[in-house]
Write a structure and sequence with these properties.
Order of helices and strands: H
Helix content: over 70%
Radius of gyration: 8 Å
Number of strands: 0
Shape: rod-shaped
């Protein structure tokens, strides 16, 4: 994570992959 945006983008993706 280099920026806060990276976190905001990867978090929902991780949740979707968790589904």
């Amino acid at each position: 994570m280099t920026t806060v945006i990276d976190t905001l983008v990867q978090t929902p993706i991780s949740i979707l992959l968790g589904l």
